[in-house]
Amino acid sequence: MNNTPGLTRRAFAAAAASAPLLTAQQTTPAEQQRHGTMAEVPPFQETLAFARKDVALRVQPFPMTQVRLLPGALKEAEEWNRGYMHRLPADRLVHNFRINAGLPSTASPFGGWEEPKCELRGHFTGHYLSAAALLYASTGDNDIKAKGDQMVADLAQCQQKLGGGYLSAFPAEFWDRLDARKKVWAPFYTIHKVMAGMLDMYQLTGNQQALKVLEGMSEWADQWTASKSEAHMQDILGTEYGGMNDVLYNLAAVTNNDRWARAGDRFTKKRFFNPLALRRDELRGLHSNTHIPQVIGAARRYEISGDMRFHDVADFFWYAITNGRSYVTGGTSSGEGWLAPPRMLAAELKRSVDTAECCCAYNMLKLTRQLYSWSADPRLFDYYERVLLNHRLGTIRPQSGATMYYLSHTPGAWKTFGTEDKSFWCCTGTGVEEYAKLNDSIYWRDNEGIYVNLFIPSELNWSEKGFRLRQETKFPEQPRTGLAVSADKPVRLALRLRIPSWLDASPTVRVNGKPLEVSAAPGSYLALTRVWNTGDRIEMDLPMQLHIEAMPDDPTLQAVLYGPLVLAGDLGAEGLTETMIIGPGGPEKMPPVELPSFRASGGPASWIKPAGKPLTFRTAGQQKDVTLVPLNGIFDRRYSIYWQVSGAA
Description:
Blueprint: H1 10-16, H2 29-35, E1 60-61, E2 67-69, H3 73-87, H4 90-93, H5 95-101, H6 123-139, H7 142-162, H8 173-179, H9 187-205, H10 208-226, H11 230-236, H12 244-255, H13 258-265, H14 270-277, H15 288-305, H16 308-324, H17 345-349, H18 358-375, H19 379-392, H20 426-434, E3 443-445, E4 449-452, E5 458-462, E6 467-472, E7 480-487, E8 491-499, E9 509-511, E10 514-515, E11 524-532, E12 537-541, E13 546-551, E14 554-562, E15 565-570, H21 578-581, E16 598-600, E17 608-610, E18 617-619, E19 627-630, E20 639-640, E21 642-647
Parallel strand pairs: 4-8, 16-21
Antiparallel strand pairs: 1-3, 2-5, 3-4, 5-6, 6-7, 7-12, 8-11, 9-10, 9-12, 13-14, 14-15, 14-21, 15-19, 15-20, 17-18, 18-19
Helix pairs in contact: 5-7, 6-7, 6-9, 6-20, 7-10, 9-10, 9-12, 10-13, 12-13, 12-15, 14-16, 15-16, 15-18, 18-19
């Protein structure tokens, strides 16, 4: 989170001080070939003019109401999050809004970033509205919908009391400071969360009052930004503004009112977008999660206008992050920023113990879904799967549902989770959203049929076709998945199975027990087009192998994977206390821990051996051997993801 104009939290500011901005970090020739010839003229030099022209998406996800999780690791995470959401009272969630509007409240205020004196107060309330809507769509939880409805009604009362459409949990004086370019902690970021929550409540639960509140907030935002010169507004965009462009573009699409899109255009930060549209990585020195939501907004702008400049911003940004600024888990950021040139990840890792902010992972998954809808490129889901399994699944605390701020990649780190009601970091907010929508990307569709992109126990009900698909799997504990068909009548359609890039070879696929004579290469789809009947069954083996990924700027600094799973070394719990595990935000400084190095005599299978339990391995023949297990299963222990390895890789 960015808390000052042009700067960030203390950790980022300190690290960035030793990482000056690049002036013209260009792409390599190979990257230019991948993304096209770079233009010479900044694409966003003139005032934007919006024209509505919806882009035809190649694929769309099935609505969450048509997909349900079955028992498994993701279902457990969904339930832990659901329990946490139910424990948070509605009156406490709206307390700061009522006080700001001059309405009475007897609720006990939250702490942390929702403490009544914190300038970011109110942000989590918006996240909660989104999470409530998502959880209702994912599970049909009527109690959580009722709580969301009550919160919308309470906030509508606050808006009416304040007058003019304005709604926030902080005083209007914050906007005077923003306008004067004085220090203030991200007022647009905060109200964006509330606006997005209102939109989700309208779209996913049908709450008409939420749309009315949102339109009032949007009218206020339109008037406030319209009163600024373009140059001054561009300066204002130096303070974090979340996804204001995204929510306004979404509202324009929902209401078919271009006014909101024109307002969204005022949040186009040209000094950030221009290099990306020119296919240049000039991200060094920028605060990571300040900027990812802006790119999500750019992607949405392309979808509702067909303006290729915004397409290129989103497309190249995703490429730059996933190919040059992501760790082995798919996470990105160090000290909340991008502190080094592209592909200098070992250097970035050394600058801060606060790596891979969870908000960044959440927003990169959102962006990946958008780009996938444009192309249906299965390789996008190789990245999605890696982030989901390694970063997201491993950052919710079992039973309590507490979530993390950072997933540290520093050797010897541990996982630190938020408190029940005294943290409320930005990542607490994206956390309750994340685990309320774990079913949103498993199945996709086009006019021809279904895409199966993730191997997660779940049920799909394509009610329009009377077609149901039940995925029964214990993946990744067992390297296979099965799909059972149920249909009201025979139906012809294509079932496209994603063949992950991490496979060594084409997998074995069986239909009704009979092996297919053809398959598909890793990184593609296997399309099965036929008439499907109740009782048809597909089985696909997904054999996993050990493999190594080295830091691009230090080949001796290596991580170990098994299929899509990042393996971490269990370094024990010595020195860890309860306040280090449930605490303020992660380790600022870490007590030292002995970290072994390894020598490889060949491939990973020559020095890493199965340890007798599923997904458990142990090094062999080293000076000090270490047990390796999936990172997503390590809790209350120190761990290491990266190791110094000499010899063959």
